[in-house]
Automatic annotation (TrEMBL):
It comes from Enterococcus ureasiticus. This is GntR family transcriptional regulator. Keywords: DNA-binding, Transcription, Transcription regulation. GO terms for molecular function: DNA binding; DNA-binding transcription factor activity. PROSITE patterns: HTH_GNTR. InterPro entries: Tscrpt_reg_HTH_GntR (IPR000524), WH-like_DNA-bd_sf (IPR036388), WH_DNA-bd_sf (IPR036390). Pfam families: GntR.
């Protein structure tokens, strides 16, 4: 599994790792129960510090996207049910994105079309 890390991005590398793994899970490129590389292996594959990968894995574990077991390694977790805390966070982040879209004069129709196209990637 090779992630694409943009060292010039303003997004921290650990967040890039998290984002790409979440998208991989949502698009079924990563299946529930699939074993992920160890922290050391992932760091070597993408050329980053092990602590960076460890931070990403910790965040993903805390959010329930992955499971870690000393004997069996790190695995993709089953898809989750909707929790109120996630829904609250989602709505706050969506509100901010829509506010920025409004400031940049992105039309509601364009936003809805883009959301539909993006969401369809996760439904396949």
């Amino acid at each position: 599994m090779l992630l694409e890390i943009d060292t010039q991005s303003q997004t921290p590398i650990y967040q890039q790792i998290c984002n790409q793994l979440i998208i991989g899970i949502a698009t079924n490129k990563l299946q529930p129960g699939e074993v992920l590389p160890s922290v050391r292996q992932m760091a070597d594959e993408i050329g980053v510090n092990m602590m960076t990968v460890s931070k990403a894995y910790t965040l993903l574990k805390n959010d329930g996207y992955i499971l870690t077991d000393r004997r069996n390694g790190t695995k993709v977790a089953e898809k989750q049910s909707l929790e109120p805390s996630f829904q609250e966070r989602f709505l706050k982040e969506l509100e901010l994105l829509l506010a920025e879209a409004s400031i940049h004069q992105l039309s509601e129709n364009t936003i809805q079309e883009e959301v539909t196209q993006i969401y369809q990637k996760f439904e396949q």
